[in-house]
Specification:
Blueprint: H1 2-86, H2 94-140, H3 151-172
Helix pairs in contact: 1-2, 1-3
Length: about 180
């Protein structure tokens, strides 16, 4: 019986040590997972901010390019008017049609430039929204460490198992009182 009690005590000590090691490993894994998730969340938020900056930059560049295209068209119209005037044209009929066509094509180019910039900005904003959604998902997916894990439960089970073994030995040897 003494040997069984000693075996139970050694088992309890081993259970306690294993429970502590398991708890430490679990805490370490939980910390690493939380750190990794926080890092990925920060990366996604930074990428979203960069995408929004790129969208604003695309809009600024588009506005500048659109204005440049309008100036270019204005210069072309001025040049055409000067040429027609130098030829002695009264700017009616065909010369007026040419000026109108040049103005229309110039405006079309300016609007196409604006459209391209708006489309690029829209794509950047969609990308920013996706990255923000990913950051939100990551931030909300952090799994808290198990709080209901009780290392003492394994110890209690070991003690109960040892006590059951002792009772079984005592019963086989008829050491228990009869009721």
């Amino acid at each position: 019986m003494g040997l069984s009690a000693a075996t139970t005590a050694v088992g309890v000590a081993q259970q306690a040590q294993q429970a502590q090691q398991a708890a430490a490993q679990q805490a370490s894994r939980a910390w690493q997972a939380a750190y990794q998730t926080a890092y990925q969340t920060a990366q996604a938020r930074n990428a979203a901010a960069v995408s929004e900056y790129n969208a604003q930059d695309a809009e600024r560049r588009g506005a500048v390019e659109e204005e440049r295209q309008r100036r270019k068209t204005s210069l072309l119209l001025g040049t055409l008017q000067a040429r027609f005037a130098a030829q002695g044209s009264d700017l009616l009929g065909s010369p007026l049609d040419l000026l109108g066509d040049a103005a229309a094509f110039g405006e079309q180019d300016a609007l196409a430039t604006r459209y391209q910039a708006v489309r690029e900005a829209w794509n950047q904003r969609i990308q920013a929204a996706n990255q923000t959604a990913q950051a939100d998902f990551l931030a909300n997916s952090v799994v808290p460490p198990l709080t209901n894990h009780d290392p003492g439960l394994g110890i209690a089970q070991s003690l109960l198992g040892g006590a059951t073994n002792l009772l079984g030995i005592a019963e086989r040897r008829n050491l228990l009182p009869k009721t």
